[in-house]
Amino acid sequence: MAQSTLTITPLDPVGAQVSGFAGSDFSPEEKQALNQAWLDYGVLLFRGIDSAEQHLALSRCFGELEIHPIKELRDEDNPFFFPLGGPPMVAQVYDEQDIRVGRIPWHRDTAFRPEICKGSMLRVLEARTSQGETLLGDTAAAYDALPDEVKQRIETLEYIAEVSHGSPDYLGPANWWKTARMARDDEYPEGVEPPRDIQWPDNSGLRPVIYPAVLRHPESGRACLFLSPMNIRHFLGMSEQESEELVTYLVRHMVEPRFVYRHHWSDNDAVLWDNRRFIHAANGYPATESRLAQRTTLADKMHAGRPLETVAAE
Ligand SMILES: [Fe+2]
Does 167 have pLDDT greater than 80? Predict the structure, then answer.
C-alpha cells in the first residue's frame, strides 16, 4: 500500500494546515487522510497550489463539484470556478474613515436556501496585499462552550433566514462597524476608477427559510451553532426584543477570537471550509488593490431548513 506523506499541523486556534503533497494525483490513502483531517478540523489550509488543475484535483478529493447556479458568476474558461476579486470593485466607507472593497460580514454560504453547500475551497492566485484576511469561525467549538442552560434554551429553537441582509449598508449582528455606506465617486483613491453600471444580483425570487439554531453535523454528529449571522431575521416564537437580545448574545459568542482562525493570504494559498460547521467573513482591503481569487464549491448539499411558506401552512 502506498505510504501517505501528508502532514497535518493544527492551526491556531482552529483548523489545520496540510503539507507533504505534490502535483494533482492523490492516492486513495491520501484522499482518506484528507477527508479525515477535514472532518476533524473543519478548515484545511494548503499552500503552493500553483495551478487551476491542482486546485480542481484537490477539491475533488472531498466530493463532486458544482457549477454555480448563476451563469454570470461562472468563470468563462471553466464553469467549476467562481472568480472573486479583481476590478471593478465597489468601495464602502466604514465608520466614516475606513474605505475598503471586498468586506463581507459573517455568514455561511447559501444560508438562505433550504439546502446549503457542503463546503468551498478558495484559492488566492494573487494576494497583492498584506491586508484582506479571511476569518473562519468554528461553530461546533462555539456550541460546546455554551453554558448548559443556553444549550437547553436553543435546542429546539428555529429562526427565519433571508438573503437580503448582505446589502452594502449592512448594520446587522454580523458586522464589526457602526456605520457603513457606499463610497462617493470623489472618495475613491487617485488612479482608481469607480465602477459603473453595477448590476446587483436580483434576489427577489428567493423566499425566506426556516433554520434550526442547532444543527447536528451529518458526518461527525457534533452539534453546530447553526446561525448564519448575515442572514438572520429573528427567532420564531419570541418577541422582537427577546430575539434580538438572544441573536446578539449568540453571534458575539460564536465570533470570539478563541473560535476563529484568521488567514493572511499569500499567493497560491487555498483554504477549504466545512460550510455546515464553519461561518466565515472577509475584512476587505484598500480600493487601490485588486486581489485575484477563485472558488470551487462541493456539490453534495445538506438539507438544513425549509421554506417559510411551509410553516405558515402547518
Ligand atoms: Fe462566503
Answer: no
- The answer to whether 81 and 296 have CB atoms below 8 angstroms apart is yes
Average pLDDT over residues 11-26: 95
What is the whole-number distance in angstroms between the Cα of residue 120 and the centre of ligand 1?
8
Options 3.60.130.10, 3.40.50.280, 1.20.120.160, 1.10.150.450; CATH for 7-193+203-313 is: 3.60.130.10
C-alpha cell at 106: 459573517
Q: How far is the CA of 275 from the centre of ligand 1 (A)?
A: 9
How close is the Cα of 149 to the center of ligand 1, in Å?
31
For residues 209 and 114, is the Cβ–Cβ distance under 8 A?
Answer: yes
Quote the pTM value: 0.94
CA–centroid distance, residue 8 to ligand 1 (Å): 25
Q: Give the 3-state secondary structure of residue 239.
A: coil
Compute, in angstroms, the gap from residue 110 CA to the centroid of ligand 1: 8
Among 16-20, 195-199, 211-215, which is the least confidently predicted range?
195-199
> Of 26-30, 104-108, 127-131, where does mean pLDDT reach its minimum?
127-131
Q: How far is the CA of 109 from the centre of ligand 1 (A)?
A: 5
Give me ligand 1 centre to Cα 295, in Å.
10
3-state DSSP assignment of residue 241: helix
